[in-house]
# Entry
Amino acid sequence: MGVISAITTNPLIYGSITALVGVVTGEYVRRRHQQKKEAREWYGEAKGYLSNLQQAARKATAYRDGVNHDTLHELLNGLDEEMMRHANDDRKRVDDEARVELAVIAAYTTGLASLSEKSLNTNALDFIKRVQGHAIEDYDGDYDMDDLEALFSGFDFGEFAKTDRNVDIDEQVAERLRSRFSDESLEAGYPTSIEEALNIPIEETEDAFETEGFLNTVVDDSLEAFVNMVIDLAKETHERMDARQERL
# Structure
């Protein structure tokens, strides 16, 4: 008698094997359901972080005078760390791409929090010098301007640089500054290499602008554009997280 025939003709053996298979299958199904539940919860929590980021950024930009740095710093405090911890959560059935997207948003949030902190109780010149100083310390040469532009795909450097602003310029100082940049950068309207950006003579740059308070305007406009980029990115990521959660 073959094995299959023996199993099917002996109710005790058949029932025992069926029970064992049922236990194994049931445990597998239970584990799958639990993993799906945990993954749904992960996406739900991720969407909560993204919503909090959008609300904080919108609240900080809901002023006629641009970004409220105090509000931005207060509302973002600790949010980046929470998002990064969540991105590194090892719950199953969560797409690796989703984790990476949340980690990227967390990095943007860290940047915003850092910029808002550096801008508190300081003038535009000191703020830019501090940012440049930290950039010089942090840059290790492992990436170039193309990498930065890809990372900040929601921010159009060229369009921002060409924004029409009513300002008086000291042409003699401006000409000295222009001599420090490549033809490519002069045509683009902004530094096209990280080395050029890191070596901009900030104080001399301020001397080129004769219009009082112009540097403050540029700093505020830059930070506001960055905040709006993060809002858009968080919204798009939220929508993708929602779609992934629905597919579970």
About this structure: Residues 3-247 form one domain. The CA atoms of residues 7 and 17 lie 9 Å apart. The chain has a mean pLDDT of 80.
